[in-house]
Amino acid sequence: MKLYFSIVLLAAVLLLNACKNEVEPEFNPAARGAILLEFDNVVGTRDLELNRGTYRNAAGEDFSVSQLQYFVSNIRLKKSDGSEYVVPQDSSYFMVREHVPETHLIRLSVPQGDYTGVSFVLGVDSLRSTMDISRRQGILNPTDMSRQEGMYWTWNSGYIFLRMEGTSPQIAPDPSGNRRFRYHIGGFGGGFGTPPVRTINNIKTINLSFGRDVAKVRNNSTPQMHIVADVLKVFNGAVNISLAQNPTVMFSPFSVNVANNYANMFEYHHMHTVVAK
């Protein structure tokens, strides 16, 4: 009997040690996890405060911002092995709205793995812009004004990629006494007429490296990548833009200067990881 219990005890100890020594795989490349892209809108070194903050551009003009929103689409994530994960296009359209904090955080379902960078389109690509309305739902539905918030030109049949409005004391007052600026930038390079004439193309692809950081997507950890969007660079760039001289910029050749500037407004800042308990 004593021998029997000794054998059972030995087997239990061996089983316990085997369980302790068992190593869980670091990740399962066939499984999925999540990565978060957090967009933090700033003006230079200061946080963007709608209707409150006063800022100054390179032309020496003071301004305040009352509205800021832009489309982020066609997201791709670069892996540490040099390959890319392309977010399915039907799930890759987002609108960041400064006055709606929950839109600043984009959650993506991706395969587990190690990611070192991200790219995205600032705007809406030409293919989606010309698709049947049935393929343009949610934030892309031009008839849903509750979601669009003025991000579609019905007269021009196109999306506004970035919309920023505000005031500046350097702008001459309009008939109502307002010193407003309105920058509604779009244009996907579509062709019109016979023969077709190409229009303005302000679609910009943004490429960001995570530097030394590696976003490790696992089943129990979600990396959150902090991306800073400096709206001061809408005015300051290859062409320094004066609000007094250009208070309203929409579908015009000058909008190319604004788009070339804002293509440089995004910068990866830091990462932190949300660990599931």
What key phrases describe this protein's structure?
277 residues, mainly beta, eleven-stranded mixed sheet, five-stranded mixed sheet, 4 helices, 18 strands, 41% strand
Structural features, described:
This protein is mainly beta and 277 residues long. It has one domain (32-275). Helices cover 13% and strands 41% of the residues. The protein has four helices and 18 strands. It has helices at residues 2-21, 126-129, 145-148, 255-262, and strands at residues 32-43, 46-47, 55-56, 62-79, 84-86, 93-97, 105-111, 113-122, 152-153, 158-167, 180-186, 191-192, 197-198, 204-209, 215-217, 221-230, 248-249, 266-275. Strands 3, 4, 5, 6, 8, 9, 10, 11, 14, 15 and 17 form an eleven-stranded mixed sheet that branches. Strands 1, 2, 7, 16 and 18 form a five-stranded mixed sheet that branches. A two-stranded antiparallel ribbon has the order 12-13. Strand 9 (152-153) and strand 10 (158-167) form a beta hairpin. The longest helix has 20 residues, at 2-21. The protein is globular and about 65 Å long. 28% of the residues are buried.
What's this model, at a glance?
Helices cover 13% and strands 41% of the residues.
Present the secondary structure layout.
Elements: H1 2-21, E1 32-43, E2 46-47, E3 55-56, E4 62-79, E5 84-86, E6 93-97, E7 105-111, E8 113-122, H2 126-129, H3 145-148, E9 152-153, E10 158-167, E11 180-186, E12 191-192, E13 197-198, E14 204-209, E15 215-217, E16 221-230, E17 248-249, H4 255-262, E18 266-275
Parallel strand pairs: 1-16, 11-17
Antiparallel strand pairs: 1-2, 1-7, 3-4, 4-5, 4-6, 4-8, 4-10, 8-14, 8-15, 9-10, 10-11, 12-13, 16-18
